[in-house]
Each structure stands twice: as C-alpha cells, then as structure tokens.
Write a sequence for this structure.
C-alpha cells in the first residue's frame, strides 16, 4: 500500500472533484440515476452539499455554459456531456463542453491526448515530407530524361533547324545551362559555324539571335554537307 505522504494528490479542485465523483459512483456511495457522474461531480464542486442541481452548479463546472443565453444549449446537454466526460476519465469530451474541459478535470489525460496528437502530426509531417521528396525525385528524373532526349534530338539536327529545336526545349522547360555544353560540342561538327560563340558566356537566346542569319542563310552546298554529317547519314555510309 502506498504511504499517505507518497500518494498522488490532485493539483486542482476540479481534478479532485472528478476523481472523488468517480469513487462515489463506482464504490456505490451514490445511487445510480440520470447523470450519476455529473451529479456527483457538481456536488463535490459545491462542497458536498446535497440538493437539486441548479444552473449555477452547471456554470461552475462548465465554464462555457451561460444560463442567460436563450439560444445556447440547455442545462441537460451540459449534464449529459459532463457525465460522459467523467465516466470516460477524460477520453471523451462531448459537445457542448469546450475542449479545455479535459485538461481542467483530467490533466494527465489531456497531456496524453496532446502527446498522441503531436505524434500523429509528426507522422503526418514525415509522410508529407517523404511524398514531397518522392515527387522531387520524380520531377528530377523527368527533367534528366528530357535533357537526354534533347541531346539525342540535337544529334540529328542541322544548323538550319537549330532555332526550332531550341524553341522546343524552351517549351519543355529545359534550362539554357543544360543546353549550352551540348551545343558547344554539337557546333564543332559543322563547317562555317561560329562554334566559339557557345563558350562566350552570353545567354543562349542572345547567341542564337546573333547567329540567326548564319543559321537560316546557309548555302545549298553547306546545307547538303550538313546533312552528310548527321549520325544516321554516317551510319548509312559505313
């Protein structure tokens, strides 16, 4: 048996009243009628005095109860809610009681429920972060695939079709930085093309604007030679 000086002592009168009400009802000290836990609680809060339950008693127990509010919930609804609250040891807090009623009467239960809610939030946050990371990875893979596709397409592009190719990559959302290196390597394949422009550090759109005349006005002989330098043409000649 726990010594009296080591026993748990309720930290507030509401908690003490709730615990004593549970003892009174479940030890048979009170006859079970309608709302036995609530009635026992309200009588504990008024010092153990007998007598009918009044609106003042309910107001003392449920801080959000206002007997003068005609549009508010009736006294019986609060009695029923208080009865369920005490019977469940704070696990159930029905309306119209406010959410703070749990911590008011059963602080340990309020703490446990709060911890449980925080754990649920942590799990939810963790799942959301994992989903977001998964989506970022998928987006990154899709982008890398698009860059690889752009490089494959570039291998079969002649200078005359470069502007149209670049516009397609813009629509796909590929960054110029990922296109510049492949263009620098690609341009060295063709004669009469200012391939050093791609290494100038200028924005890619500006480089292509400057090269627009050179790209669109290549002679018939240059265009023919360009087609001979494409990979599929070289493969056919082997």
């Amino acid at each position: 048996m726990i010594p009296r000086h080591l026993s748990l002592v309720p930290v507030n009168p509401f908690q003490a009243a709730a615990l004593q009400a549970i003892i009174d009802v479940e030890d048979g000290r009170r006859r079970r009628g309608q709302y036995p836990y609530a009635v026992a609680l309200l009588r504990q809060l008024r010092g153990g005095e007998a007598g009918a339950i009044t609106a003042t008693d309910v107001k003392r127990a449920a801080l959000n109860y206002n007997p003068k509010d005609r549009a508010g919930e009736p006294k019986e609804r609060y009695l029923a809610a208080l009865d369920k609250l005490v019977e469940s040891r704070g696990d159930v807090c029905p309306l119209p009681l406010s959410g703070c009623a749990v911590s008011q009467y059963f602080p340990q239960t309020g703490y446990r429920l709060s911890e449980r809610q925080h754990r649920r939030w942590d799990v939810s946050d963790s799942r959301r972060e994992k989903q977001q990371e998964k989506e970022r990875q998928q987006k990154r893979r899709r982008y890398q695939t698009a860059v690889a596709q752009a490089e494959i397409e570039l291998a079969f592009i002649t200078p005359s079709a470069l502007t149209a190719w670049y516009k397609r990559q813009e629509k796909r959302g590929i960054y110029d930085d990922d296109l510049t290196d492949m263009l620098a390597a690609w341009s060295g394949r063709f004669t009469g093309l200012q391939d050093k422009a791609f290494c100038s550090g200028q924005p890619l759109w500006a480089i292509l604007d400057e090269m627009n005349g050179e790209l669109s006005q290549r002679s018939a002989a240059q265009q023919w030679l360009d087609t001979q330098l494409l990979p599929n043409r070289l493969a056919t000649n082997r």
Observations:
- The chain is about 65% helix and 0% strand.
- Confidence is low (pLDDT under 50) at residues 1-7, 233-238.
- Residues 146-237 form one domain.
